[in-house]
Amino acid sequence: MPLARPSRRAVLTAGALLLVPSTSPRAAAQSTLARNTRVQIGVPTRAYWPTIVVEAALRNRLFEKEGIAAELTIYKGGAEELEGLAAAAADLVMITPLLVSIGRSKGAGAKMIGGGNQDYAGWHMMVNPGSKIARPEDLDGKNVAITSTGGGADLAALYLQQARKIKFVRVSVGGGGLVPSLTSGNVDAVVVPPPLSYNLLKSGEARSLVDFSKEIPLHQAAGWTTTEKNIKERPEVMQKALNAVYGGLAYLDANRDFAVNLIAEIDDIPADIAAVEYENGIRTLPLTAEVTADRIAAAFELNKLLGASGLIPPAEVFTDQFFAKMVPTKP
User: Fold this and answer.
1) pTM of the shown model
2) Do both 128 and 115 map to the same domain?
């Protein structure tokens, strides 16, 4: 009796089975190795220094030199970064000490392992060129535009009120409403972040009343943060990721032309404005990873202006186990 001829469907099914990846112990080990050497990095927005630093590391293949793979995700703010960290969608993010505290109080296990910016570089309180307002005290009783309540501009405005013992009305206008609100005369002053502040200073559309990099004391404004799970289970990978990130920063610090071109590309700004951002922003960043409890405490004092309470002890925000071992990766 002749053998039955297999159907076309049976042949295709058998062929498909041959294409299924092997589930041998060796293949499983390789898959685990790939996962364990991959790092998902998150930044809070595109036009911000952490994006520039990570891109510099990626374009110079610094993560590859450390034997790991890295991917960059641009989030919509620090709160979304924290959510990504808690959900294991991100391994290393740049967030504020306040968000680390919030994350830990909610069981996210966030821990800062490397420092970031320590001041308000590039942030200015600005007025119209012909304004009669000559000093911060002249703002008493006036209207000041900020992007939104609870953000960096709001904190800067609140600090100025406290430090100079003045009171003005904070008006939330969004990022796109800052310049129109000022030029139309709807407000008397605006709190402007970089690089927009540099554009306004260059064009002469506004003049600086307060340079917040000089007004607000040094504090740990933000830092590279991971989870306690990563610290416990993947310390070598996190160390290598930190090495590569700071290698990117070191490369930017030593290669001005590359840095300015990269800033201009990513921030979508003219080269001359990018050069100002480089000098006032990138060049002012600490080249080491150290974080101190004193700087965290100073940041928390500022956060209290926004109504923050129930914050964890500053020493619990970070771990110092990666600082001494950090060696910036070279191209």
Assistant:
1) 0.85
2) no
